[in-house]
Backbone:
């Protein structure tokens, strides 16, 4: 059994540093090449998925930092044809994120803020992060402008609200989320109007 601290350290080691896009691509290729010498790319993807699974089971939230590497090893993403399952849309196939996000831990959003730069290199990451966050953290995620793509934000919120169990506590979270979403839409519209006047 690998200790939680070791799992967190391993995720830190596999997390991409804040570098130029070309440096990141080179690092991705180097990591893949090193591992391919001892295993196949498919096997590497399976091992990374298993690492994420282990971290989820042990409540080691740093697993969200290695998702860009996992996405990089996945087959090229096909054009979206909705409807599609949430895990496919988010690049999280095979991971039990839906049950875990119900557990209200406050550290996940902070870990995402710490590594926000990762989204510059992985367009699927914002979808993944939207899907793994607890519902009560989603409004702040949107306010922090993790995604500039309004359609992605709307799709993510739609997935999240699809199967939500409405209780008193979650109804407050949903209300807060929808108000944040409306503010975001208003801001986007105001910016669009301003740019057309210029």
Residues:
């Amino acid at each position: 059994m690998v200790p939680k601290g070791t799992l967190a350290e391993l995720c830190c080691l596999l997390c991409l540093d804040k570098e130029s896009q070309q440096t990141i691509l080179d690092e991705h290729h180097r990591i893949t090449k090193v591992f391919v010498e001892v295993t196949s790319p498919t096997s590497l993807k399976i091992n990374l998925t298993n690492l994420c699974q282990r971290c989820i089971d042990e409540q080691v939230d740093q697993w969200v930092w290695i998702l860009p590497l996992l996405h990089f090893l996945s087959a090229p993403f096909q054009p979206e044809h909705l409807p599609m399952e949430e895990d496919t849309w988010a690049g999280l196939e095979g991971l039990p994120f839906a049950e875990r996000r119900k557990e209200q831990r406050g550290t996940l959003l902070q870990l995402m803020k710490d590594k926000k730069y990762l989204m510059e290199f992985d367009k699927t990451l914002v979808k993944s992060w939207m899907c793994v966050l607890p519902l009560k953290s989603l409004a702040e995620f949107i306010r922090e402008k993790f995604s500039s793509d309004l359609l992605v934000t709307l799709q993510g919120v739609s997935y999240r609200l699809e199967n939500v169990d409405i209780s008193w506590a979650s109804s407050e979270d949903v209300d807060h989320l929808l108000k944040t979403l409306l503010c975001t839409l208003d801001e986007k519209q105001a910016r669009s109007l301003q740019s057309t006047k210029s």
Remarks:
- Residues 4-75+84-197 form one domain.
- Residues 76 and 90 are 13 Å apart (CA to CA).
- The chain has a mean pLDDT of 86.
- DSSP finds eleven helices and no strands in the chain.
